[in-house]
Amino acid sequence: MSEKKIIEERSLILNRRSFLGKTALGVGGVALASLLGANLFRKDENGLLTKDDSLEGVKGILNSLHHPAKVKRVIYLFQSGGPSQLELFDYKPLLNKRRGEDLPESIRNGQRLTGMTAGQDKFPLVGSLHNFSQHGKNGTYISDILPYTAKMVDELCIIKSMYTEAINHDPAVTFFQTGSQQPGRPSIGSWLSYGLGSENENLPAFTVLLSRGTGRPNGQPLYTRLWGNGFLHSLHQGVQFRAAKDPVLYLNDPKGITKEVKREMLDNLAALNDKHYQDSGDPEIKSRIAQYEMAYRMQTSVPNVMDTANEPDYIYEMYGPEAKIPGTYAANCLLARRLAEQDVRFIQLYHMGWDQHDNLPGAIAKQAKDVDQASAALVADLKQRGLLEDTLVIWGGEFGRTNYSQGLLTDTNYGRDHHPRSFTIWMAGGGIKPGIVYGETDDFGYNIVKDPVHVHDFQATMLHLLGIDHEKLTYKYQGRRFRLTDVEGHIVKDILT
């Protein structure tokens, strides 16, 4: 089915006047449409998620899934700035034993460095000043600055062998989010909106929440293109929810505009746009009509989902005291659970502040405290509500940090530069083996020695869990068929149930 046809079908569903006029079902038709748009997945006899083709709703380009899915939504807790794996997950006692010694050339092997350390005469090895302890059934080492994460380690698949080609923040974040280091490609959430559509006709398929950490509060910025639709239709772009009186910009009506007036205005605007579409045939016009209609419905749905006042006290206690402060990581994790309950397809959290080139021991402890309790609470909360079994939760940044000190090394202080060659993320939820550690780095924590996982492998695996063959979800643009994983990517089968 062509993209043009898909946009036409969406506008038929989302445009009230068109729907009523062409179906002649009246109010009963509106109620039926609301129900039919609510769920595009069902479970087969084996408990696997499959596309339910008997339902009509806000569909994506895929008429059916490529294979049964394990999950139907993703919550991506992106830790922007590059968390140091050596302070959090990748325990390397050798670095403390050989503290201050120069990194052997046989280990570095001529690897590219950033401009921040390329001029150093020496690269003194430095281990973490924070202690590690073993946790869970398998005795997994977790830093003591992540006590809540340590308690839930049996729910996690910790991947210690991630790697990327990007060595600077912007291309590295862009690579994870879009599959390319160059800006302009669609983000993950946009690909999922394009392929799978929405499970909730009153909320976007792709939502974004931002928070700023205490580890480096004025660190690397993020750009809206990271959740942009690229060359896909604008219907698929991410919608940012803000910690403000108006969570979504330009959503509320000016004073004096009633619902009746707004409805009439949208109907008239849709008629004008439809006439323009008949003349030009531009499918982006239909996307714009659909966006107007979505915004109209979001005027009610967004305040409801953003209002956490009715959450019980024990929930706030789970997520931590900052869960009551809008815009914090804890508050956003709680909102992520609420959005998951509403079947939002892709929920993207960005937490900034992990870029610790200096003062790392103290700064990373603050940053870890920002996210530790809330991340663990999110997983536990999803599990107690029966949502974890069909939700994929991801935690990680764009690259890791070096095993040597950037700048002056003292007894109490040091920094670390960017390190794309090996770093750690974790995943939890449906289809992921819990309580395992996958991949391994050398004793210096510098090179991967077992089971490397490339960024495109990670993306391919995520799509696989959603029932998508990463090689088949494509979009033709400027004479080439593009996909999230570009021309690479292998499914990491050993971490799947």
TrEMBL record:
Top-level taxon of the source organism: Bacteria
The keyword Transport belongs to this UniProt entry's keyword annotation: no
Residues making up the signal peptide according to the UniProt record: none
Keyword Transport tagged: no
Pfam families registered for this protein in UniProt: DUF1501
Keywords of the record: Membrane, Transmembrane, Transmembrane helix
SUPFAM superfamilies: Alkaline phosphatase-like
Entry's transmembrane regions: 20-41
The protein's name in its UniProt record: Tat (Twin-arginine translocation) pathway signal sequence
Organism: Arenibacter palladensis
